[in-house]
Structures are given as C-alpha cells and as structure tokens.
C-alpha cells in the first residue's frame, strides 16, 4: 500500500510539473529558437515543419498564422535600444535600414500582439510609401500624436500597462532563415520621451 501511494504521488507530481511547465512556456508568448538582432527577435522556424511544439501551441492559441519560410519573415521588438520595455504612451524614433525585401511593413500592436485603434485609423507603414534619406536609410516617428515625416501611429488611448510591440514583416526577402540573419542590419529603436 505504501509503494502504491508513493508511485501515485510521483505520477501526480510529474503530471503537475509537466502541465505547469507547458502552461508557463505558452503563456510567455515568445516562441523558442529566437534569433536576436539588437531589439528585434525573429523566429525563422515558425510556420515550418521544424517549429517546436511550444511555438506551434503559442501560434495556435493566439490564432496567429506565421509567415512561411518562402513568404517572408516577421521580426518583433518588445524593447528599445536601452533595454526598456516599449511603452505606448512614449514617443520613439525607429531609424536605419532594413534587409533587402520586395516589400516590408511595420506595425505597432499592444503587448499581446493585437492591433490597436489609432487616431488616423491606420496601423502600419510600408516600404513603398516611405520618405528616405539619400543613402536609403529612414527615420520613423512612432507616437500617438501626428508627427511630420514618416509617422507610425500608436494607440489613441493607451496606458503604459498595455504594453507594446513593433512588428517588422519582410516579404519575399532572402533573409528567411536563421543562418541568413547573421550580420544583417535592422532599424534602431530609440525612446525620445514620455509624457
């Protein structure tokens, strides 16, 4: 009887540990096998047969369809260049260049990755409608209030606790695998100020 109780206890604890660890991995909403470049994280195995089970569960739970390796690559930033979490009440400058791609878009979402309501009703910028410097670089001001030049609208009414992410999607780009991401340059995210 004592052995049976001991084995039952072990099975129950192992089950709780397994379910608990899976829950924690899925709740953090950051797939495994990330490639980090500055503030940006890419998940090149997302949408492929090589994706790990936790990543598949995260995308399935969030009803997110990742770009397949032949379509492009999504990069996500949750922090600025100083390592501070992005705050939707602040103003940011996103500057630099992106890797070669037929088209790219940049979107600001809330901390859970959902689109937000903005004053102009637009939630993204794209590479085809962007003002650039002579060397091909660009500067984007991300703020809830209008700015001159390239303006990425942030949430019209947001709290710091809502969190924020910048999502850069590169379509039809040669940098769709982890190995191809070595040595590429991505835009820098700088916090200019907060109210």
TrEMBL record:
Pfam families on file: DUF1214
**Where does the secretion signal sit in this chain?**
none
Q: Which SUPFAM superfamilies match?
A: VPA0735-like
Question: Where in this chain does the record put each DUF1214 domain?
Answer: 72-173
In Swiss-Prot or TrEMBL terms, this protein is called DUF1214 domain-containing protein
Q: Which organism is it from?
A: Roseibium album
